[in-house]
Design a protein that fits this description.
This protein is of the alpha/beta class. About 50% of the residues lie in helices and about 15% in strands. It folds into 2 domains: about 120 residues, Response regulator (Rossmann fold, 3-Layer(aba) Sandwich); about 70 residues, Arc Repressor Mutant, subunit A (Orthogonal Bundle), CATH 1.10.10.10. α3 packs parallel to α4. It starts with a strand and ends in an 8-residue tail after the last helix.
C-alpha cells in the first residue's frame, strides 16, 4: 500500500528537499507540494492524501487554520505539523486544529519519518525532546499569533500601536473607551504581553504597523 503525502511550506528549497527525502522511504509517495495554506487545502481536497505535512507559519492561511480546514474536508488525512518554533503554545494549537504530530524543523529527518509512521498507525506522536512552554510573545511568530486575533482585535491593536488614545480609538470604532480597555487587556492576555510597549513591538513584528508609525 502506498502512503501518499502532501507537503506545505512556503520556503521552496526546504520543501523540495524535504519531499526528496520522504520519497526515499519505501512505499511513500509525495503527491503534492504547496507553498501556502490555501494551496495545501486545495491539494488535499483533490488528492485526499494519507498525510499532510504542514508548516505552522506560512503566508496567507497558516498551518493552524489549514489544519482545521483539512480536517473538515478530508477527515482521514493525518496531519503532521512542522515548525521552527519549539513551543508548547503552537503544539497545543495545532493539536486542537487536528494535528497528530508536531516536529521541529531543526530536528533530523528521522524524527519526521517517525512522526509520519506514528500518525499512519493511528497514534499521536510525541517529540523526543519535551516541548517547553515558551509563553512569551518574543519567542513566537508574530504572524501566526496575529492570525489568531479577530478583525476587531487587530484593529484595536493597530490603533494602540499607532499611539492613539483610548477615547479616540473608541470614537473611531464606535465603542466605549471601557470596551477598548477590555480589548487591550484581552490582547495582552492572548499574546502573553504585559504592557503597551510590548503590544507595539508585536504589532511591528506582525506587520500591522510600520516602525515609523
Amino acid at each position: 500500500m502506498t502512503i501518499t503525502i502532501v507537503i506545505a511550506d512556503d520556503h521552496v528549497l526546504f520543501r523540495q528537499g524535504l519531499a526528496a527525502l520522504l520519497r526515499e522511504q519505501p512505499g511513500w509517495a509525495v503527491v503534492g507540494e504547496a507553498g501556502s495554506g490555501e494551496e495545501a487545502i486545495e491539494l488535499v481536497a483533490a488528492l485526499k492524501p494519507a498525510v499532510a505535512v504542514l508548516d505552522v507559519e506560512m503566508a496567507g492561511i497558516g498551518g493552524i487554520d489549514a489544519a482545521r480546514r483539512i480536517r473538515e474536508i478530508s477527515a482521514d488525512t493525518k496531519i503532521v505539523a512542522l515548525s521552527m518554533y519549539f513551543s508548547a503554545h503552537y503544539q497545543q494549537r495545532m493539536r486542537r486544529a487536528g494535528a497528530s504530530a508536531y516536529v521541529r524543523k531543526s530536528q533530523p529527518i528521522d524524527e519526521l519519518v517517525d512522526a509520519v509512521r506514528a500518525v499512519i498507525a493511528g497514534r499521536v506522536y510525541e517529540p523526543k525532546s519535551p516541548v517547553p512552554p515558551a509563553t512569551s510573545a518574543e519567542t513566537r511568530s508574530a504572524r501566526v499569533d496575529a492570525d489568531a486575533l479577530s478583525e476587531r482585535e487587530r484593529e484595536v491593536l493597530r490603533l494602540l500601536a499607532e499611539g492613539k488614545r483610548t477615547a479616540l480609538i473608541g470614537e473611531a470604532l464606535g465603542i466605549s473607551h471601557k470596551t477598548v480597555e477590555t480589548y487591550r487587556a484581552r490582547l495582552q492576555q492572548k499574546l502573553g504581553i504585559s504592557d503597551l510597549s510590548g503590544l507595539v513591538r508585536f504589532a511591528i513584528r506582525a506587520g500591522l504597523v510600520s516602525p515609523e508609525s
